[in-house]
Protein backbone atom coordinates (compact mmCIF):
# COMPACT_ATOMS: atom_id res chain seq x y z
CA UNK A 1 0.00 0.00 0.00
CA UNK A 2 1.62 3.24 -1.19
CA UNK A 3 1.69 6.16 1.25
CA UNK A 4 1.20 9.83 0.41
CA UNK A 5 4.91 10.57 0.89
CA UNK A 6 5.91 7.65 -1.38
CA UNK A 7 3.39 8.75 -4.00
CA UNK A 8 4.74 12.29 -3.86
CA UNK A 9 8.43 11.32 -4.05
CA UNK A 10 8.02 8.82 -6.87
CA UNK A 11 5.92 11.22 -8.92
CA UNK A 12 8.28 14.16 -8.49
CA UNK A 13 11.38 12.05 -9.18
CA UNK A 14 9.95 10.52 -12.36
CA UNK A 15 8.47 13.78 -13.59
CA UNK A 16 11.80 15.54 -13.11
CA UNK A 17 13.53 12.83 -15.15
CA UNK A 18 10.90 13.28 -17.85
CA UNK A 19 11.31 17.06 -17.92
CA UNK A 20 15.10 17.04 -17.96
CA UNK A 21 15.10 14.39 -20.68
CA UNK A 22 12.70 16.26 -22.96
CA UNK A 23 13.60 19.82 -23.89
CA UNK A 24 10.17 20.45 -25.42
CA UNK A 25 8.43 19.56 -22.18
CA UNK A 26 10.86 21.57 -20.06
CA UNK A 27 10.33 24.65 -22.25
CA UNK A 28 6.55 24.21 -22.27
CA UNK A 29 6.35 23.86 -18.48
CA UNK A 30 8.58 26.87 -17.96
CA UNK A 31 6.47 29.03 -20.27
CA UNK A 32 3.16 27.90 -18.81
CA UNK A 33 4.40 28.54 -15.26
CA UNK A 34 4.57 32.22 -16.14
CA UNK A 35 0.77 32.20 -15.99
CA UNK A 36 0.49 30.44 -12.62
CA UNK A 37 1.30 27.29 -10.68
CA UNK A 38 1.17 24.06 -12.68
CA UNK A 39 -0.87 21.30 -11.09
CA UNK A 40 -0.47 17.70 -12.19
CA UNK A 41 -3.72 15.78 -11.75
CA UNK A 42 -5.13 12.28 -12.00
CA UNK A 43 -3.69 9.27 -13.74
CA UNK A 44 -0.18 10.55 -14.44
CA UNK A 45 0.48 10.64 -10.69
CA UNK A 46 -0.63 7.02 -10.34
CA UNK A 47 1.52 6.02 -13.31
CA UNK A 48 4.65 7.82 -12.17
CA UNK A 49 4.22 6.37 -8.69
CA UNK A 50 4.26 2.89 -10.24
CA UNK A 51 7.24 3.79 -12.46
CA UNK A 52 5.11 3.62 -15.60
CA UNK A 53 5.25 6.21 -18.38
CA UNK A 54 1.79 7.83 -18.56
CA UNK A 55 -0.26 7.62 -21.74
CA UNK A 56 -0.95 11.31 -21.29
CA UNK A 57 -0.39 14.04 -18.72
CA UNK A 58 -3.12 16.32 -17.38
CA UNK A 59 -1.98 19.76 -16.27
CA UNK A 60 -4.13 22.48 -14.73
CA UNK A 61 -2.72 26.00 -14.80
CA UNK A 62 -3.79 27.91 -11.70
CA UNK A 63 -4.44 31.16 -13.52
CA UNK A 64 -7.33 33.48 -14.27
CA UNK A 65 -6.22 33.22 -17.89
CA UNK A 66 -7.32 30.14 -19.81
CA UNK A 67 -6.06 31.02 -23.28
CA UNK A 68 -2.55 29.69 -23.85
CA UNK A 69 -2.41 29.96 -27.65
CA UNK A 70 0.67 32.18 -27.51
CA UNK A 71 2.66 29.66 -25.47
CA UNK A 72 1.51 26.72 -27.57
CA UNK A 73 2.00 28.36 -30.95
CA UNK A 74 5.19 26.40 -31.69
CA UNK A 75 3.63 23.05 -30.69
CA UNK A 76 1.21 20.72 -32.41
CA UNK A 77 -2.06 21.12 -30.51
CA UNK A 78 -5.82 21.39 -30.78
CA UNK A 79 -8.53 22.82 -28.57
CA UNK A 80 -11.12 20.46 -27.13
CA UNK A 81 -14.82 21.17 -26.82
CA UNK A 82 -14.47 21.99 -23.11
CA UNK A 83 -11.92 24.77 -23.56
CA UNK A 84 -8.75 22.83 -22.83
CA UNK A 85 -5.77 22.00 -25.04
CA UNK A 86 -4.39 18.69 -26.23
CA UNK A 87 -0.69 19.03 -27.04
CA UNK A 88 0.98 16.34 -29.13
CA UNK A 89 4.65 15.68 -28.48
CA UNK A 90 6.86 12.95 -29.87
CA UNK A 91 6.04 10.26 -27.34
CA UNK A 92 3.26 11.63 -25.14
CA UNK A 93 0.17 13.82 -25.12
CA UNK A 94 -0.52 16.60 -22.64
CA UNK A 95 -3.96 17.89 -21.72
CA UNK A 96 -3.71 21.46 -20.48
CA UNK A 97 -6.49 23.42 -18.82
CA UNK A 98 -6.93 26.77 -17.19
CA UNK A 99 -8.31 26.12 -13.72
CA UNK A 100 -11.64 27.79 -14.54
CA UNK A 101 -12.24 25.18 -17.27
CA UNK A 102 -12.24 22.30 -14.81
CA UNK A 103 -15.79 20.99 -15.11
CA UNK A 104 -16.59 21.18 -11.39
CA UNK A 105 -15.46 24.81 -11.31
CA UNK A 106 -17.09 25.68 -14.62
CA UNK A 107 -20.42 24.38 -13.28
CA UNK A 108 -19.93 26.37 -10.03
CA UNK A 109 -20.01 23.20 -7.96
CA UNK A 110 -16.89 24.31 -6.09
CA UNK A 111 -14.70 27.41 -5.93
CA UNK A 112 -11.81 27.34 -8.39
CA UNK A 113 -8.77 26.74 -6.19
CA UNK A 114 -6.15 24.05 -5.67
CA UNK A 115 -7.74 22.61 -2.52
CA UNK A 116 -10.91 21.80 -4.47
CA UNK A 117 -9.39 20.07 -7.50
CA UNK A 118 -9.40 16.64 -5.87
CA UNK A 119 -12.84 17.25 -4.35
CA UNK A 120 -14.17 18.07 -7.82
CA UNK A 121 -13.08 14.76 -9.33
CA UNK A 122 -15.90 12.50 -10.41
CA UNK A 123 -14.35 9.33 -8.91
CA UNK A 124 -12.32 8.94 -5.74
CA UNK A 125 -9.80 7.02 -7.86
CA UNK A 126 -8.97 10.23 -9.75
CA UNK A 127 -8.75 12.45 -6.69
CA UNK A 128 -5.08 13.39 -7.04
CA UNK A 129 -3.46 16.81 -7.42
CA UNK A 130 0.22 17.76 -7.19
CA UNK A 131 1.37 21.39 -7.20
CA UNK A 132 4.61 21.28 -9.19
CA UNK A 133 5.89 24.52 -7.66
CA UNK A 134 5.37 23.67 -3.99
CA UNK A 135 5.46 19.83 -4.38
CA UNK A 136 2.30 19.65 -2.24
CA UNK A 137 0.29 16.52 -2.98
CA UNK A 138 -3.43 16.19 -2.25
CA UNK A 139 -4.13 12.44 -2.37
CA UNK A 140 -6.04 11.51 0.80
CA UNK A 141 -9.26 10.53 -1.02
CA UNK A 142 -7.37 8.41 -3.56
CA UNK A 143 -5.35 6.61 -0.89
CA UNK A 144 -8.53 5.79 1.01
CA UNK A 145 -10.05 4.38 -2.19
CA UNK A 146 -7.06 2.09 -2.70
CA UNK A 147 -7.04 1.08 0.96
CA UNK A 148 -10.74 0.17 0.87
CA UNK A 149 -10.55 -1.19 -2.72
CA UNK A 150 -13.76 0.68 -3.48
CA UNK A 151 -14.56 2.90 -6.45
CA UNK A 152 -16.98 5.64 -5.47
CA UNK A 153 -18.44 8.86 -6.85
CA UNK A 154 -17.42 11.73 -4.60
CA UNK A 155 -19.51 14.65 -5.82
CA UNK A 156 -23.03 15.23 -4.49
CA UNK A 157 -25.94 13.47 -6.21
CA UNK A 158 -27.46 16.73 -7.46
CA UNK A 159 -24.33 17.45 -9.52
CA UNK A 160 -23.72 14.02 -11.05
CA UNK A 161 -25.73 14.65 -14.22
CA UNK A 162 -23.78 17.85 -14.87
CA UNK A 163 -20.70 15.81 -15.73
CA UNK A 164 -20.39 16.02 -19.53
CA UNK A 165 -18.86 12.58 -20.21
CA UNK A 166 -21.05 9.82 -18.72
CA UNK A 167 -19.98 7.22 -21.30
CA UNK A 168 -16.31 7.76 -20.50
CA UNK A 169 -17.05 7.65 -16.77
CA UNK A 170 -18.71 4.25 -17.15
CA UNK A 171 -15.94 2.89 -19.38
CA UNK A 172 -13.40 3.99 -16.80
CA UNK A 173 -15.35 2.33 -14.00
CA UNK A 174 -15.13 -1.03 -15.79
CA UNK A 175 -11.44 -0.54 -16.59
CA UNK A 176 -10.62 0.43 -13.01
CA UNK A 177 -12.41 -2.62 -11.68
CA UNK A 178 -10.68 -4.96 -14.14
CA UNK A 179 -7.13 -3.63 -13.79
CA UNK A 180 -7.13 -2.26 -10.23
CA UNK A 181 -9.64 -4.70 -8.74
CA UNK A 182 -11.74 -2.04 -7.04
CA UNK A 183 -15.34 -2.94 -6.25
CA UNK A 184 -18.19 -0.60 -7.18
CA UNK A 185 -19.92 1.39 -4.46
CA UNK A 186 -23.72 1.50 -4.43
CA UNK A 187 -23.59 4.97 -5.98
CA UNK A 188 -21.48 3.70 -8.89
CA UNK A 189 -23.80 0.74 -9.42
CA UNK A 190 -26.80 3.08 -9.44
CA UNK A 191 -25.09 5.48 -11.85
CA UNK A 192 -24.24 2.71 -14.32
CA UNK A 193 -27.63 1.02 -14.03
CA UNK A 194 -29.51 4.26 -14.74
CA UNK A 195 -27.32 5.01 -17.75
CA UNK A 196 -27.74 1.50 -19.19
CA UNK A 197 -31.51 1.74 -18.87
CA UNK A 198 -31.58 4.65 -21.34
CA UNK A 199 -30.21 2.73 -24.34
CA UNK A 200 -31.01 -0.33 -26.41
CA UNK A 201 -27.35 -0.95 -27.30
CA UNK A 202 -25.37 0.43 -24.33
CA UNK A 203 -22.31 -1.80 -24.75
CA UNK A 204 -21.81 -0.72 -28.37
CA UNK A 205 -21.95 2.91 -27.22
CA UNK A 206 -19.39 2.22 -24.49
CA UNK A 207 -16.99 0.46 -26.86
CA UNK A 208 -17.20 3.40 -29.27
CA UNK A 209 -16.56 5.86 -26.42
CA UNK A 210 -13.65 3.74 -25.20
CA UNK A 211 -11.93 3.74 -28.58
CA UNK A 212 -12.49 7.47 -29.01
CA UNK A 213 -11.11 8.26 -25.54
CA UNK A 214 -8.20 5.79 -25.34
CA UNK A 215 -7.44 5.32 -29.03
CA UNK A 216 -8.03 1.59 -28.68
CA UNK A 217 -10.26 -0.89 -26.89
CA UNK A 218 -8.95 -2.09 -23.53
CA UNK A 219 -12.09 -4.10 -22.82
CA UNK A 220 -14.06 -6.52 -24.95
CA UNK A 221 -17.84 -6.78 -25.20
CA UNK A 222 -17.47 -9.95 -23.13
CA UNK A 223 -15.71 -7.94 -20.40
CA UNK A 224 -18.65 -5.56 -20.26
CA UNK A 225 -21.18 -8.39 -20.16
CA UNK A 226 -19.33 -10.34 -17.49
CA UNK A 227 -18.76 -7.33 -15.27
CA UNK A 228 -22.20 -5.87 -15.87
CA UNK A 229 -24.25 -8.92 -15.05
CA UNK A 230 -21.97 -10.02 -12.24
CA UNK A 231 -23.42 -7.59 -9.74
CA UNK A 232 -25.50 -4.85 -11.37
Task: Compile the SSE list and pairings.
Elements: H1 4-20, H2 23-32, E1 37-41, H3 43-49, E2 56-62, H4 69-72, E3 76-79, E4 85-88, E5 93-98, H5 103-106, H6 114-117, E6 129-131, E7 137-138, H7 140-148, E8 150-151, H8 157-160, H9 166-180, E9 183-184, H10 186-196, H11 202-214, H12 221-231
Parallel strand pairs: 2-5, 8-9
Antiparallel strand pairs: 1-2, 1-6, 3-4, 4-5, 6-7
Helix pairs in contact: 1-3, 9-10, 9-11
What does this structure look like?
The protein is an alpha+beta fold. It has two domains: 1-149, Beta Polymerase, domain 2, CATH 3.30.460.10; 165-232. The chain is 47% helix and 15% strand. The chain has twelve helices and nine strands. It has helices at 4-20, 23-32, 43-49, 69-72, 103-106, 114-117, 140-148, 157-160, 166-180, 186-196, 202-214, 221-231; strands spanning 37-41, 56-62, 76-79, 85-88, 93-98, 129-131, 137-138, 150-151, 183-184. The strands form two sheets. It has a seven-stranded mixed sheet with strand order 3-4-5-2-1-6-7. The radius of gyration is 18 Å and the shape is globular. The model has no long low-confidence stretch (mean pLDDT 88).
Number of helices: 12
Distance between the termini: 28 Å
Total domains = 2
> Helical residue percent?
40-55%
List SSEs in N-to-C order. HHEHEHEEEHHEEHEHHEHHH
Q: Specify the biggest β-sheet.
A: 7 strands, mixed
Shape: globular
Given the helix and strand composition, which structural class is it? alpha+beta
Strand order of the largest sheet: 3-4-5-2-1-6-7
Return the CATH architecture of the largest domain. 2-Layer Sandwich
- The tally of strands reads 9
Question: What is the mean pLDDT?
Answer: 88
What percentage of the residues does DSSP assign to strands (E)? 15-25%
Question: CATH superfamily of the largest domain, called what?
Answer: Beta Polymerase, domain 2
In the CATH hierarchy, the third-tier topology of the largest domain is known as Beta Polymerase, domain 2
Query: What Rg, in angstroms, do the CA atoms define?
Result: 18 Å
- Give start-end ranges of low-pLDDT stretches: none
